[in-house]
Design goal:
alpha+beta, 7 helices, single chain, about 25% helix
Length: about 230
């Protein structure tokens, strides 16, 4: 079926959600879209479907600003920036040193957004303290906490566009595993974390441990349905 005959209303492409059909530009079907930043624009259907257009332009501007910013000497969490390490595609990469003494490289976006705050030592310390990580093995509960935070804050994470990409976040208290464990308790065998309101955030009042059937029945409306991650 051609893009002209396809109804894209409600579908999401990158940071863009299709609102309605727009007036054609020549032979090409066009659609009115809204970007996650709030801007609206008109885009050709083939550009949406092919992935050639993924935002209103705000993402490119953000990346350009990110690339131009000098983070040398700045502190982000436990990390202090040493120097620019180059780029990965359009992403600026920086050499950093952690308070524990380890050095590593981190994307500028992850530093600025706060999704990376240490070399990993803080997560390992928390897990070890609570007995949820031994010999490299993590408990079910700890894995859930890690995955929840990643898909809300790490743009490279699988399914980020369905969570952090559409504004889903988590209770700031849950930045610490201790608070998550206190609120949710241990993850039961065969269950995974589920948001009662799919448009709501991860927090104690909106989360439960649920089986796959319950989660499947709790998906968003069919037009905007997404693949859930049972972690």
């Amino acid at each position: 079926m051609s893009s002209r005959a396809t109804d894209h209303t409600g579908k999401t492409y990158g940071l863009l959600t299709v609102l309605s059909r727009a007036e054609n530009k020549g032979p090409n079907a066009t659609w009115r879209v809204v970007c996650e930043c709030g801007n609206t624009s008109v885009v050709q259907a083939r550009s949406l479907v092919s992935g050639a257009t993924k935002s209103c332009g705000c993402e490119q501007r953000r990346l350009a600003t990110e690339k131009a910013t000098d983070h040398t000497g700045k502190v982000f969490g436990l990390l202090t920036v040493i120097e620019r390490a180059g780029s990965q595609g359009s992403n600026a990469i920086w050499n950093v040193i952690c308070d524990c003494g380890n050095t590593t490289t981190v994307r500028a976006g992850n530093l600025v957004e706060g999704s990376t705050k240490s070399c990993g030592c803080e997560q390992r310390r928390i897990a070890t303290t609570h007995g949820h990580s031994r010999g490299g093995e993590m408990s079910r509960t700890y894995k859930t906490w890690i995955c929840m935070r990643q898909r809300c804050s790490n743009k490279n994470a699988t399914n980020y566009s369905y969570y952090g990409g559409r504004g889903i976040t988590y209770d700031p208290r849950w930045e610490k595993f201790e608070a998550f464990l206190l609120d949710m308790g241990e993850r039961p065998e065969g269950l995974s974390i589920d948001r009662i309101n799919n448009d709501g955030n991860y927090c104690k009042s909106n989360c439960r441990w649920a089986d796959a059937t319950t989660q499947a029945n709790n998906q968003r409306p069919k037009k905007l349905r997404i693949a859930k991650v049972f972690v």
